[in-house]
Design goal:
11-stranded mixed β-sheet, 451 residues, alpha/beta, two-stranded antiparallel ribbon
Amino acid sequence: MINTNDILETIRMIQDECLDIRTTTMGISLLSCADSDIDKACAKIYDKICTKAEKLVETGEQIEKEYGIPIINKRVSVTPIAILAGVSGGDPVKYALTLEKAAQTIGVNFIGGYSALVQKGFAAGDLELINSIPQALAQTEHLCSSVNIGSTKAGINLDAVKIMGQKVKEAAELTKDNDCIAAGKLVIFCNAPEDNPFMAGAFHGVSEPDCVINVGVSGPGVVRSAVSKHPDYSINEIAELIKKTAFKVTRMGQLVGVESSRRLGVPFGIVDLSLAPTPAVGDSVAHILEEIGLEQCGAAGTTACLAMLNDAVKKGGVMASSSVGGLSGAFIPVSEDAGMIAAARSGSLTIEKLEAMTAVCSVGLDMIVIPGDTTPEVISGIIADEAAIGMVNGKTTAVRVIPAIGKKIGDELEFGGLLGSGPVMKVNTKSPAQFINRGGKIPAPLHSLKN
């Protein structure tokens, strides 16, 4: 039976509490496009993406109008391009430009998958693609890139960690006149999921079907509003409240995913039930933590509150969808979250505290602006630390930092849109160069031996 109160509650969530579907992301396998001739491969890629995703944006807009549910982004993720580069050889930037052209043709916000999976070492095409990332991101607007440098099963590829510190810095330098935006489209993973619909880390894993539709939900504002109405609740009652709220938010994602799948004629993959914030007032994960009882995000108790929030979101959402995947939990991107921005500006939130928080959230050090003179070795050290948290805890962690070329602590970068703005945060400048330059691989932890 249709419950009128439930309908009215959902309408209120959308109108007043920033509830939305953050993205519908179509994953497309490009394995059938591999060719020893890079130009032929690029032609096949363009044709396949434009055929499969021809109606992705149009379908999303139709669902928005018919159901009154905002779908903020329509995106595409593809097979890690390093795999195709290993077959064809040649300049991988050709693939980047092809993906950019396809993204413009079909009208999506972002296209992800300019990626390499090197947790166990470098295969053919991996190094070539990684070395091309700064140029590829500087020459494109919609392209996103990711590199997986570690996993619980494989350990951490320290050679890749060293290179990625260099590439992050190069990407920022190449776009220093555009707020170093290329670094904001590059993420370095440990335990990267193959079905993540969120950028910049989305790619279409090799175990995925030929084409699939994945949905990423949001809703920090809805959770904050629910918590604010019960200042006298105990913490276990707050957890239960968040579970119930996450269930409602995820049901909306399930509806959009199933309907998109039906209309596009492709399988429905997963709902990523993450709380993905925006710079808009009232749409902040940090503000949820403050509503729970912290004076400001970053205060003592922040990690504990975030752990409870992340767990409650997963428990509530997992019952609301036939298939939950991706990252699923709470995101803490600094520049994309109004409360995080305020806490970083005031000094309450530091990189060290953020690192602690990443042990209990869904992703990692995300959209953090650091001084422009930060060395590649320090960036690599940050990547290694974050990867170690993911490896040991068997969870996804990631690093997306933006060296603000020419700027110092206290200055700001302004990205606009969902990427927001961010204050330049202090970084420990003591050098890890000798450690990073040792190279080799950090072995997998003992508990990876589960067979």
